[in-house]
Amino acid sequence: MDHDFDAVYQRIGTDSVKWNMYPDDVLPLWIAEADFRPPEAVVSALAERVAHGIFGYTAATGHASAPGAGWTFPELADVIVSRLAARYQWHVTPDDLVYLPGVVAGFNVACKIAGDMGDEVVMHAPCYGPIQKAAPNQGRVATYATLREGVDENGLRTYAHDHDALQSVITAKSRMFLLCNPHNPTGRMFSRAELADIATTALDHNMLICSDEIHAELVLSDHAHIPIASLSDEVAQHTITLYSPSKTFNIPGLGFCVAIIQNPALRAAFVTAMQGLVASPQIFGYTGALAAFRHGDQWLNELTRYLQQNQQFVLSYMRTHMPQLIPNRAQGTYLAWIDCRKAGLPGVPSEFFLREARVALGNGGAFGPAGEGYVRLTMATQRQTLQRALDAMRRALEPYS
Amino acid sequence: MRYDFDTVVDRRGGDSIKWNLYGDGLLPMWVADGDFKSPQPVIDALVARSQHGVFGYAGAPAELANLLVKRMKDLYDWTITTDDLVYVPGVVTGFNIAARAVATPGGGVLVQTPNYPPILNCAPNHDMVTQTAELKLVNKNGIIDYQLDMDAFSHAITPETKIFILCHPHNPTGRLMNRAELTAMAQMCVDRGVVICSDEIHCDIVLDGRQHIPTATLSPEIAQNTITLMAPSKTFNIPGLGFSFAIIQNPQLRAAYKKVMAGLVPHAGIYGYVGALAAYRDGQEWLTDSLRYYEGNRDFAVAYVKKYMPQLKITNPESTYLSWVDCGEAGIEGNPKEYFQKFGVALGDGRNFGAHTANFVRITMACPRSLLADGLDMMRKALEPLS
Q1: Overall average pLDDT of the A256-278 stretch
Q2: Taking the alpha carbons of A371, A372, A375, A378 in that order, is the dihedral positive or negative?
Q3: Which residues, listed in sequence order, are joined to residue B245 by a DSSP beta bridge?
């Protein structure tokens, strides 16, 4: 390995939200953010840009080849287009790209153009909190197709898309399916059959699809990520896909995301809804994204191995020392989603672990009612930090075993 | 002067929209973006942050809020609290949020013309109605100026008017409204139930020792009715870092503002916070020097136009680094911006600034004086065949 993922960075007292939300003695494994330094090429590209010293307006467009419109970062669109083709055999053009400061803004804009006020946006449950909030933020109503919970042969928690649950929640007011794939918090990478069921249902009811694929490149299993828009041209015509280097290369603080919208009318509506409210990414978002996509893949391969080992470590630790907790085995993302309902804990599990173990975890209830009794644990940290957190959780559980 | 504003830094081929929009052949003086390096403390802070190397979700430094509170007190004797601050990525986003916070589709958005194009575009962005009050153009010996026309202002307000977006100091005219003018407008807005959004992005670029008066400082009643937008973007030439802030002292108005932001408007990125903090804390020397330089550039441009292009009428701005030029008597057929472009200089297109502005161009003078001279020389050459 070229990159030392075991190296610990002092992040307490920096601008890190992750490390400063709680007192200094708390280990933060709550937010979906890694503690790793990004690829060196990203760091050096940023350093070089900073040294230039002038920080004026920048505005990239996806139209790299359009005359007079390659404005800034003209190579970025081609890099993204090539990457999607190479990784997913998904063929888009620079014209299909719309740059944004983040995926949250992206799916909020999507909700803003999904039908009218009071219309419904369908999503899985449990689901990432900001996805749930996007619908009401934009005057829409969130409805939920609850994932089917199960247990695998190793006693691990599993989830599956549920055809019947989706059918039962569709109404005449359903205007969009807001998908999160790979799924946060369960780590599911939906299969082609599951995605086809979602897409068919959406198209049958003339619904849009917005697919948050921010975790697309964080694959812990032998599954392949399938962008839902790559299922067919027809699906592509109804889909807004959100893609970003933020999680992949651990650069959320740079603020870059790209929406891929192949239907020109849909893209125009999306861009119109952004006007004045959702600004272009800034210099460092573009700079970091370009360097990461171009030069980050070896780092990403090494990261993936490190995360797989972290996951193995977490699962085996929990099986051995905390059998009363039932984790999943995330196929994608770096998140562990842990069912604490049989552990007999007093109150909300995340509050229990914060208080008794000094470990900050994501509160399952923040992922909707289907997440109550769960915690989400971010595994993207140095193994020694993970070990300290698990040791502390284990000790906190001892009185309850 | 400690800082050197005369050195030309090559920005061609980089990520500058100013220098890339028209390609390499043209000298760009259109967008309000300076060609100067940022204050050294800003660059140093950005370098240090880059070296840290981990770029996770970043919160705003507490020191920044305290610094802004103190800055308002020191500069304007304006007492605000950290609770009154709302960070946004830019003032354009800032006034668009304001419109949505107080008006619904069909509501009236009052603006003055001429004006900064994104202010004029705000109402249509949200299916609202633009209501226009023109400023009165006056001409004194070839120097043009704009005055507040309170009759026009009053007539433009209707029962549908929900918000007045004020640009103060004013872009593109460089007018710095005085206390009497501001009070007349602001009090009328209060009396007629119109919220004020005061875009004060140029508040620090006031020339000849003038004093900027934030609209919200006029009276407690006006403060309760006002959303103020400020930013280090123009002040320290860091628009690309994406940091601005709103000051909203009325809690209900602030809550409505934050509600519109939810989900759509992300917080500033890491570099926005780092740059803003360093600029406001340690950038004063650069700012002082830059103001002297802008005054020199303005005086140079005004003298140049008077001497070599008397057929043009130019502003003598009290604030901003912008020149607003009436080309109506220069004999140019068609759009002056397009015409000057053929001679190598890309200027701001007057047509984007509202009604009765088709004969105008805007010149951004935030550049080394040699470039300003080059641009003016090109304009002069362009006019020669016409005289």
Answers
A1: 95
A2: positive
A3: B87, B230
Separation of alpha carbons B7 and B3, rounded Å:
10
Name the band, by pLDDT with cuts 50, 70 and 90, for residue B113. Answer: very high
**Nearest CA to CA, how far is B217 from chain A (Å)?**
27
Residues contacting B218, CB < 8 A, separation 6+: B179, B182, B183, B186, B187
b vs e for A344-359, b when ≥16 Cβ sit within 10 Å of the residue's Cβ? Answer: ebeebbbebbbebbbb
H/E run at residue B384: none
Structure tokens at B107: 């509501």
Distance separating alpha carbons of residues A79 and A92, to the nearest angstrom: 12
Instruction: Say which residue the tokens 């507490």 belong to.
Output: B62
DSSP letter (8 states) at residue A275: T
Question: B residues 297-356 near A, CB within 8 Å?
Answer: none
Q: DSSP letters along B115-160, please?
A: --HHHHTHHHHTT-EEEEEEPEEEEETTEEEEE--HHHHHHH--TT
Average pLDDT value for residue range A40-61 = 91
DSSP-assigned beta bridge partners for residue A361: none
Nearest CA in chain B to A48: B47
Nearest-angstrom CA–CA distance, B220 and B207: 28
Name the token pair of B160: 């549908």
Q: B57 and A112 in contact by Cβ < 8 A?
A: no
Pairwise CA distance, residues A323 & A398, whole Å: 11
Residues A158-192 have pLDDT tens digits of 999 999 999 999 999 999 999 999 999 999 999 99
Q: Which residues of B touch A129 (CB under 8 A)?
A: none
Q: What is the DSSP code string of B45-62?
A: HHHHHHHH-----BPPPH
Long-range contacts, A195-198 (Cβ 8 Å, 24+): A195/A226, A195/A228, A195/A231, A196/A231, A197/A161, A197/A163, A197/A166, A198/A161, A198/A166, A198/A228
Of A318, A12, A307, the residue nearest A154 (C-alpha): A318
Contacts of A56 in chain B (CB under 8 A): 11, 16-18, 33-35, 237, 239-240
**Are B271 and A282 a contacting pair at CB < 8 A?**
yes
Q: With beta carbons less than 8 A apart as the criterion, state whether B318 and B208 touch.
A: yes
